[in-house]
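Q: Convert this sequence to structure tokens.
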Amino acid sequence: MSDTKAHLPLVDAAGDDAGSESHDVGDTVGHDSGDSSRVIGVLALQGAFIEHEKMLGKLGIRTVEIQQRGDLEQHFTGLVLPGGESTVQGKLLRDLNMLEPLRQLVAGGLPTFGTCAGLLLLAKHVEDGDTHLALMDITAKRNAYGRQLGSFFTHAEMTGIGTIPMTFIRAPYIESVGKNVQILSEVNGHIVAAQQGNMLVTSFHPELNDDLSVHRYFVNMTESGHSLDQAADIL
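A:
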């Protein structure tokens, strides 16, 4: 845990102009050697999806962008829900008829990693906000650390990883968790990382730092064998 804070400059992490595509490990310089059978889907409707793709590429993981319902027919062994604007992402998921198929995939055991807005998409309860996938037994508070000028950077412990850098931008935090949720990290007395089975969430943005630890932790979660192929019958 840590209470060290430093103000950050404004960060625009959105990659809204990116087209739907698949990224091979060779797209990123300096990646680890990886298993080509592991492919992670990244929700690419809005927010920092490109940054997640780059981090996974450094670990030798191929990614596919999920931008429409038909993209769910691709093979992937895990799913990333990036930071951005949860209200916008939730609306787009509904407008594109993607919300229920995604909900069923995650409920069916697909390893899923939600950062910031992705945490809010997964939360069963959101104070002063709408719920979307509503699968993870947590209560989240939106913009809990204030608006963007109140964003900060710190280092803190995360269970199973150690001390890591954490970048918070208009971040939510988790106010309470259900009995099946494991708290992985707290900063200033607030829960900022947690896991419930196949679902991992962080309030902070690990994709905006050079440390690969959190993404490596998630990649290890995907080794349990859950994949779109195994969950295809629920679409």
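The domain at 22-223 is CATH 3.40.50.880 (Rossmann fold).
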